[in-house]
Amino acid sequence: MRVRHHVAVFTAVVVLGLSPSLVAGQDRQYVEPVMAGDTVSLPFSEAVLVGNTLYVGGTVGMLYQQVPETAAEEARLLMEYLQETLADADMTMDDLVSVQVFCSDLAAYADFNRVYRTFFTREYPARAFVGAEVLGGLRFEVTAVAVRR
Asked: Which helix (H) or strand (E) element contains residue 145?
């Protein structure tokens, strides 16, 4: 079991795994799937794999329901959780093709970049860094798309 840290998910503990299902002729696999009609969980799955493409939902860097003290620590946790989600789909950070970073404090841009750089060994993915309010008092939230090399 592993604790995942999503926006507003402060107490969820879930069992990880990919659950295949056939939808509209495309084989889809879900990382931490949430079923429609589930009124306990938030209404989204962590990631969805369609073919060789993984769509990753909002990921944040929270530890034990606490916002880290520094932007760098929060960025590191976020990137580690993103890396774990990719690993759950047998992918790596170098499979990322697009990343969107939402940031509540644009002064943390340099801190985020210092951490972000350390998670890649090949080309960087395309990326947007957008000023936005992030739930839970966090500084960052990331969504991403990865395509298996």
From this structure: strand 140-147
State the burial class of residue 64 (Cβ atoms within 10 Å of its Cβ: 0-12, 13-18, 19+).
exposed
CB 101 within 8 A of CB 140: yes
Q: What is the CATH number of the domain that holds 131?
A: 3.30.1330.40
Residue range of the domain that includes 99: 2-147
Q: Report the distance separating Cα 9 and Cα 58, nearest Å.
A: 11
Q: Which CB contacts under 8 angstroms, 24+ apart, belong to 26-29?
A: 26/50, 26/51, 27/51, 29/89
Q: Which two tokens stand for residue 137?
A: 């008092």
pLDDT in tens, 102-149: 999 999 999 999 999 999 999 999 999 999 999 999 999 999 999 999
pTM exceeding 0.85: no
The answer to whether residue 2 scores a pLDDT higher than 70 is no
Are 20 and 51 in contact, with CB atoms under 8 Å apart? no
Write down the residue that tokens 């909002």 correspond to.
58
Number of domains observed in the structure of the chain: 1
